[in-house]
Amino acid sequence: MADHYEALGVSRTATQDEIKKAYRKLARELHPDVNSDTASQERFKSVTHAYEVLSSPESRRDYDMGGQNAFGGSNFDFGDIFGSFFGNGQRGPKSRVERGQDALLRVELTLQEVVFGADKTLEVDTAVLCETCHGSCCQPGTAPTVCDICRGAGQIQRQVRSLLGNVMTSAACGSCRGYGQLISSPCVDCRGQGRVRARRDIELKVPAGVEDGLRLQLSSQGEVGFGGGPNGDLYVDIVVRQDDVFGRSGDDLTCTLEVPLHDAVLGSVAKIETFDGEQTVEIHAGQQTGDVITLKGKGVTHLRNSGRGDLRVMVQVLTPTKLDSKQKELFKALAALRSQEQSRLVKQSHGFFARGKGRG
Questions:
Q1: pLDDT recorded at residue 1
Q2: Which residues of the chain fall short of a pLDDT of 50?
Q3: Domains of the chain
């Protein structure tokens, strides 16, 4: 087999740019559209194959280490062969325009923001459309030119010998890399990519009622694609910070209200601060620890329906631990008046733990 470096007329230490220039020069001279004689066509095939091998750093490395085969590498399988025969399914030049990648962000919310919803401004570092070339990848005032090697087809076809006999193979043009066009004056601001990195703000309206771990999708808010292609999507994961006072059970809010013993015995009215401002909680005479007082419509807004859940206030009666002498005498007098009451076990269906079942 002819040496690929000799076929291109370059040294073994030639740079990739020197190899590319040598191939383009020879391809113009030997292309079948210019020279129809058999010798030129055969040499064109040899030159093109040599360029395919040496233009890729990986296949060039394999070749320099002694791997020589018709497909430019030392290892191949029948999938590689058939892909080469039929062009890997590609017809015509490929587009430079690609869809941008999706992005994922996390947003932390307070429980109050979950209850009512919130407007957030997200600052993201992403790819945006190049304002200089507007995605064309070319320096302003210039335009891509048709590849003079593949004549805009993006593919190079040649006839080669194989295990199946003489077949026509199709491969991406090494000069234009399959695009069918060359950009001789790429945009200096985006380096011919049609996009640049930048920080931008995205307005996010978080609906009321979202839950921790919920993922929101913002269509076309991801990065701009290569060549000014369409934006990908932006996904936002919701993280809800734990509140010091309130918890959540479904669309209900929960909290614990400590009630002094005398208020639990005689009844009272308590003022509590909620996400809806100050609310009044009525403590009935004889209120017990574990009792739940419900404030209707003061919970979390339903995510997919109108209305809100409730605020469930669990009572915790405070038993005094430090009494002065006068207070002790009063409790002793009360104990004497109620001496018929004794400590006792109760049935499970009537106890505190039974009442606590089902509470979130």
A1: 46
A2: 1, 67-89, 358-360
A3: 4-76 (1.10.287.110), 94-241 (2.60.260.20), 247-356 (2.60.260.20)
Rounded CA separation 265/314 (Å):
16
Return the number of other C-beta atoms located less than 10 Å from residue 152's C-beta.
17
Whole-number pLDDT of residue 82: 41
d(CA 91, CA 70): 23
Neighbours of 74 (CB within 10 A): 13
Round to whole Å and give the CA distance between 70 and 85. 12
Q: Long-range contacts of range 150-153, CB-CB < 8 Å, 24 or more positions apart?
A: 150/93, 150/175, 150/176, 150/180, 151/33, 152/93, 152/180, 152/181, 153/92, 153/93, 153/180
Q: What is the pLDDT of residue 236?
A: 96
Q: What is the DSSP string of 84-121?
A: HHHGGG--SPPPS--PPPPEEEEEEE-HHHHHH-EEEE
Per-residue pLDDT at 335: 83
Global confidence as pTM:
0.64
* pLDDT at 74 (0 to 100): 37
- Assigned token pair, 120: 């957030």
List strand residue ranges (DSSP E) for the chain, in order.
Answer: 103-109, 118-129, 145-146, 155-162, 165-172, 181-182, 195-206, 215-218, 234-240, 247-249, 252-260, 268-274, 277-283, 292-295, 311-318
Q: Contact at 8 Å (CB) between 173 and 150?
A: yes
Instruction: State the CB neighbour count (10 A cutoff) for residue 358.
Output: 7
